[in-house]
Amino acid sequence: MILIGLKLSVVLVLLFGLTRHSVDGICSVEHCTDSKRCVLSDDQRRCKCAMGYYSDQCDKNAHIKVMCGRDYIAIRAVEDFFKYHNVPLESLHLPNKSCGAQREVIDDVPFYISRISKDKYVTCGGKPLEKNLTHISYTLSLLSDPQVSGNIIRDPVIKMAYTCVYPYMRRVSLPFPVVPFSSEKVMRVDELDATIQMMLYTDHTYTKAFSSAPTIELRDKVYVEVTVTEPADFFLLRVNECWATPSPQPNTTEGSVHTLLLNGCVNDRTVSFLNASTGQSGHNGESSTVRYSFDMFRFTAEPHNLYLHCTVQLCEPDDHKSCTPNCNSISKREAVRADPVQGLLSYGPIKIEIPERSLSSILMTVVLPVACVWTVGFFLIILITVAKAGSRRLAQMED
User: Fold this and answer.
1) Which residues form the signal peptide (predicted)?
2) Span 335-339, average pLDDT
């Protein structure tokens, strides 16, 4: 198996393998000295070129390459390889002869290539899909028709059997309901099932999830958990982006948007990751569960309720590189693969609790102070009046 990377953040990588290749090339026994290029028979009287090589001395590389794209499967080899075996382009095809090969020139080198979309896999004669807990396999064969001369066939028939092995989960799209206790949904993806869940918890212990739309005060901590529930503890999970909107639509162009996580990195100063095992400070993409918290806020415009949206990426257990965001880069955009394939989770509404003052509080803070001012003023007037009356009476007595 050879590991290659696709332009995805679907976090994701692809596996592909060339499982069988049987071409009986003409091989010169006296020159068969390199076991990597040619293989001798048990009686040492015959030899054939090893996979990927050809010519009488097996010293030419056919540059056979299998390409496993997100939506296509392909195999190619240099044109000279087929000409050496007297195999014309029009005789090459997949098990269904309507799925032929084409000639392409790449970097001034001509190739014969067979490329089909995954939608045509069954139509072109692909073998039944093989799948297990971790992978799904697509297997095809590129064949050549025998070249008949009169009533004999002298040239070998080419058969290249190749397999693309894709990770269990390649694409997720999870339109989760807004009520947390039913926020789990199973999606069928490439004939396989996977489950991801996003929930909010009442405190830092992550022991009690909200059982209905939560109401949280401004500046209080919001505790978020995103986890792969099935299969449990297998994949690595990376949360790529999280943002809040005042409406349920994640891609709304109306109203405000506040970004909490960007390219797997903190984009809000109040955000902090927590380790799911220890409860201490943690990192994004280190396990099948991602936990983080942020301080509650609200938008200036109505409505004040929030909806939280996150895009996620699954990685194989040993693929820590794809799931670990590079948050030290000057440009965070450089840390993400191009054209990421991601799943979307949405949660909400999250209601903002704005304390309302009671009537008694208003009376205490507004009416009472005013009443006190009036009372003090009244007594001052009385004192002034009494003082003036006393002064007049004193003057009269002196006269």
Assistant:
1) 1-25
2) 42
